[in-house]
Every structure is written in C-alpha cells, then in structure tokens.
User: Fold this.
Amino acid sequence: MIPLSDVNPTRRTPYITYLLIGINVVVFFWQQTMEPEELFRTFLQNSVVPILVSNNLFSVETALDITRSMFFHGGWTHLGGNMLYLYIFGDNIEDRWGHFPFLIFYFMSGFGASLLQVAVDPDSRIPLIGASGAIAGVLGGYLVLFPTARIRSIVFFGYFIRFIELPALIVLGFWFVLQFFNGVASLGVSAEFSGGVAFFAHIGGFVVGLLLTLLLLPALRSRRHESTVIFDADDAYSNWR
Assistant:
C-alpha cells in the first residue's frame, strides 16, 4: 500500500514542509556529484553511527550528527519515498502546529528516532541517515489529528493494482504495524540481512510524534478553532468588499 495524496485541505501555505523537501533534494543532488570514497566519508561525517555515539548520546556533537543525518539519503528510492510522505502529510501537521512549532516537532521526532535505534542496536557500525524517523513523527501526529481523513492509495493484490481511498487510521496504522513487526524480526540480525532499514528509527519517530501530539492535543484543537474563526472573518470581509 502506497499513499498518493490525501483529501484534507489546509488553510496555510506549508513553507517549512516545502523548505525541508527542498533542502533534502538539494543535498541529495550534491551527493550525486561525489566519488564513492568521498560520499562514504561524507556519510560518516554526517550520520549517526551507533557504536560511536552510544556512550556519548547527549553531547552537542551527537546532536549535530543527528540533525545533519536527517538531510542525507542512500538512494533515489530512499529520498523519493520520504519526500512523498512528507509532502502528503506534512502540510496538514504544519497547518495545525504552525510553521516554527512544526519545525521543532519535526526535529524532536527525528531525535527520538535516532535515539531509539541506537538504544536497540548500540554496537552497530552502520551509519544512520535519512529523514525517515522525523517523517514517521509526522505520520504519528497525523494519525492523532486526522484519523478519518481520506488517503488516496495504490494497493497491490498480487498482480493486480487498485487505486482506492482509505481512512488515515488504516493507512498509517498498517504502516506502523509493518514497521513494528519488521523491527522485531530484525532484532539480532545483521543490517545487511535486514535490508539496511532502521525499523526502530521509524518506530521511535512515530511514537514521539504521536505522544507529542497527544500531549498538546487541547492546545492544537484550540489553535484550529482560533484559525477557523480568523479565516472565516477574513473571508466575510473580502466578500463584503
């Protein structure tokens, strides 16, 4: 199941979402200009390597590593999948949180993702890169705020393909269950045999985003009401003129 778009209009232009997508794309094209050896060194310098940070998790250096790692990707599929999810779901979360709070929410989810992955596999020498964990937080927040929003998705039934609309609860719930069981199955398995996917980073980011949204849900609902009143007043004034 792959989401393609949602039926969930917003009131604000999602500047931060667009900015994050733009930075990720620019960084990825910069990666393409590098020779393999240079690219590997760049990954090491801008990634989270669990065995190197597990005893120094709460340092400024580790915080910088986690932040930088969110803007590097391992390939076109890695980048494309992440940016698709951010584009579909990020605008609604930014609309509800507000621009700057959304940016903080995004990075907090990314930090939670990296920290859980390091905690689960502290001896790993595999560099952790990608925006997946931060975007998983966006998915967790979306599930709380918009569980009934319709998600246009492509679903594969063997050799058959169908385009259908499903509620976010099913689409994102299915995504999380898939990450959870893959994560459990990957425990004790070398990264090269688990596809190199940091499933617990996805789980950690999703849970952080979900919990942050639940924690601030009354304020977010109040913000939505105030926003609706303001925009309705603007519309009325425009029509009156």
About this structure: DSSP finds ten helices and three strands in the chain. Confidence is low (pLDDT under 50) at residues 228-241. Residues 217-240 form the longest helix (24 residues). Strands lie at 2-7, 150-157, 160-167.
